[in-house]
Automatic annotation (TrEMBL):
Protein name: 3D-(3,5/4)-trihydroxycyclohexane-1,2-dione acylhydrolase (Decyclizing)
Key word Nucleus present: no
Name of the encoding gene: iolD
CDD domains (UniProt xref): TPP_PYR_POX_like
PROSITE patterns linked: TPP_ENZYMES
First and last residue of the signal peptide: none
Keyword Hydrolase: yes
Sample GO molecular function, one term: 3D-(3,5/4)-trihydroxycyclohexane-1,2-dione hydrolase activity
Domain called Thiamine pyrophosphate enzyme N-terminal TPP-binding: residue spans: 54-129
Enzyme class: hydrolase
PANTHER family linked: 3D-(3,5_4)-TRIHYDROXYCYCLOHEXANE-1,2-DIONE HYDROLASE, THIAMINE PYROPHOSPHATE ENZYMES
Domain Thiamine pyrophosphate enzyme central: 217-349
Transmembrane segments: none
Entry keyword set: Hydrolase, Thiamine pyrophosphate
Length: 609
């Protein structure tokens, strides 16, 4: 009879997680973020306390932002390592649903261990229990089901023997990678069971590198061979595969230009001579010109989100075809693409071998040089009085950036402005734009710095997104995790205000001046950040912003630099149409004009066939 060890279910979970290893002999789940409540404090909380010297627990301020930090960590680690997050029953759990959706959309690993109702049902209904009048098995945690890759409810301690390996197999699967929710009944957490000692033997999880079907590779080779103007669209899958060098070699050998999505930007340096920037709605002029002429679009690890495709108007060549290299058949087969299901690095190498010495000569190097000059022009220091634009703020940070600088953001004006204007060094860009979640920024900066302490992390955040979620700044102060927050204050939601105007709408409920308020707020962000414990200053202008960024490099706590900006200007360069529906009836002349513009652009939409 095999040896056993008697543990509570919560103790067994923590012990098992602590010995799940990577090929580099590090824990795959580095530790667990925790906010305790009555659904997890007695069981999981006590188990984490007992293991605190071998499996760390980190206290956060909000369940959603703890999970955001964990997601940013996993993204920075290219899905090779991850964090877990635990919450109590009820609102603690549902606070994390948004973060789960963010991880799901971005295909990133996240383990959420959520307190749940009593499996015995003896004390039902417990505090914070959501009761379904028609289904006695439902709890608040069922809200996770649409936004996780794997969901399980642990109602017996022996369930861990199957659910934990299943959870890690999902999180380490390059094709199905995503968030996992384990709804852990609170009485089950405390229940003891005789677990096999073998269950706790260290296990190495390898991130597999699936090879594509040779027939699909041949289809792609043939498609490229007959093309005249092929173009590569590099997505986040390039980074997660570690295919950056393979992409550079492929583009160089066959002289094919490439453009980078939000998730793929920074995979290769902007200085690479075949890197034409980003495509689509917030794309560079030179990239969108290539997209318009390309007769073969080669997607590598991209979902072809509408911002990348200009809502399917940017690829204007009537003879265009689509190739999609992706790990998941769902993504590879989108839009009638010629699919290649396989690892990006392996697939690019196999396709390159099949192409032999074939080279193309259709892109103009002068176009990207001209674009870089345009970027430097629109991001230059202002030569006039008045508030700076977001583009000029980006220029200030760019001028003092270093080789180890990472520019990061998630929502508002800055994601689009950074995509089109930030000249990223290799590994110097982190954007959450799959879900574009307001409130990711500060927590995300914390997660990036935890994963890459050698990097200088610059967090771009608007006043609206900062107001939505800033509390993990306190966590960074407590843990002495330094990063720099550039907080642009335009007194409202400037990005959506501009979109509202573009769609023919009246300025309404976005800027404070257009909102139904009795008093226009004058929020002292410097005082707020200082109260949390961060170093905070108000930049007097662009030159002072540059100086404050340099000065922040010597600190061991976060620095917040607030700068007032104007809310009207767009980037002033690049860009493309985005499909945002305009009301078809009623409204003043401004709406009629917006409808005319919308109809003209919508007529250009065309799916691949």
């Amino acid at each position: 009879m095999s040896a056993t060890i008697r543990l509570t279910a919560a103790q067994a979970m923590v012990k098992w997680l602590s010995v799940q290893m990577t090929e580099d002999n590090e824990r795959f789940i580095e530790g667990m973020w925790a906010i305790f409540g009555h659904g997890n404090v007695a069981g999981i909380g006590e188990a984490l306390h007992a293991a605190r010297d071998t499996f760390p627990t980190w206290r956060g301020q909000n369940e959603q932002t703890m999970a955001h930090a964990a997601i940013a960590y996993a993204k920075t680690m290219k899905r090779r390592r991850a964090h877990a997050v635990t919450s109590s029953i009820g609102p603690g759990s549902t606070n994390m649903v948004t973060a789960a959706a963010l991880a799901h959309v971005n295909r990133l690993p996240l383990l959420m261990v959520c307190g749940d109702v009593f499996a015995s049902r003896r004390p039902d209904p417990v505090l914070q229990q959501v009761e379904d009048f028609d289904d006695g098995t439902v709890s608040a945690n069922d809200a996770f089901r649409p936004v996780v890759r794997y969901f399980d409810r642990i109602t017996r301690p022996e369930h861990l023997l199957t659910c934990l390996p299943r959870a890690l197999s999902v999180m380490t699967d390059p094709a199905n990678c995503g968030p996992v929710c384990l709804a852990f009944c609170q009485d089950t957490q405390a229940e003891a069971f005789d677990y096999p000692e073998s269950f706790f033997a260290p296990k190495v999880w390898r991130i597999r590198r699936p090879e594509p079907d040779t027939r699909e590779v041949q289809d792609v080779v043939e498609a490229i061979s007959v093309a005249k103007h092929p173009l590569i669209v590099a997505g986040g899958g390039v980074l997660y595969s570690g295919a950056e060098d393979a992409l550079a070699a492929f583009a160089s050998k066959h002289n094919i230009p490439f453009v980078e999505t939000q998730a793929g930007k920074g995979g290769l340096s902007f200085e690479n001579t075949r890197n034409f920037g980003s495509p689509g709605v917030t794309g560079s002029a030179c990239a969108n010109a290539l997209c318009a002429d390309a007769d073969l679009i080669i997607g590598v690890g991209t979902r072809f989100q509408d911002f990348t495709t200009g809502s399917w108007t940017v690829f204007a060549n009537p003879d265009r075809r689509l190739v999609s290299i992706n790990l998941h058949p769902y993504d590879a087969g989108k839009h009638n693409a010629v699919p290649v299901v396989g690892d990006a690095r392996v697939t690019l190498e196999m396709v390159s071998e099949g192409l032999g010495a074939i080279r193309f000569n259709w892109h103009s190097p002068a176009a990207r040089t001209s674009w870089h000059e345009t970027v430097r022009s629109v991001t230059a220091s202002p030569n006039r009085d008045g508030l700076p634009s977001d583009a000029q703020v980006i220029g200030a940070v760019q001028r003092v950036s270093q080789g180890n600088t990472v520019a990061m953001c998630a929502a508002g004006t800055m994601p689009g402005a950074l995509q089109v204007l930030w000249l990223a060094a290799r590994g110097g860009y982190h954007m959450e734009y799959g879900y574009s979640c307001m409130g990711y920024e500060v927590a995300g900066a914390l997660g990036i710095k935890l994963a890459a302490p050698e990097k200088e992390v610059i967090c771009f955040v608007g006043d609206g997104s900062y107001m939505m979620a800033n509390s993990e700044l306190a966590t960074a102060v407590m843990r002495k995790v330094p990063f720099t927050v550039v907080l642009t204050d335009n007194r409202g939601y400037g990005c959506i205000n501009r979109l509202q105007i573009e769609c023919g709408g009246a300025e309404f409920n976005n800027m404070y001046k257009d909102s139904n308020v009795e008093v226009q707020p004058e929020i002292d962000f410097v005082a707020h950040a200082r109260a949390i414990g961060a170093h905070a200053v108000k930049a007097a202008g662009i030159a002072d912003l540059e100086a404050q960024i340099i000065e922040a490099r010597g600190r061991d706590i976060p620095s917040v630099i607030v700068i007032d900006t104007e809310a009207v200007s767009s980037t002033g360069a690049g860009g493309h149409w985005w499909d945002v529906a305009v009301p078809q009836a009623g409204g003043p002349e401004r709406l009629e004009q917006a409808r005319e513009r919308y109809n003209a652009n919508a007529a250009k939409q065309r799916a691949f066939d």
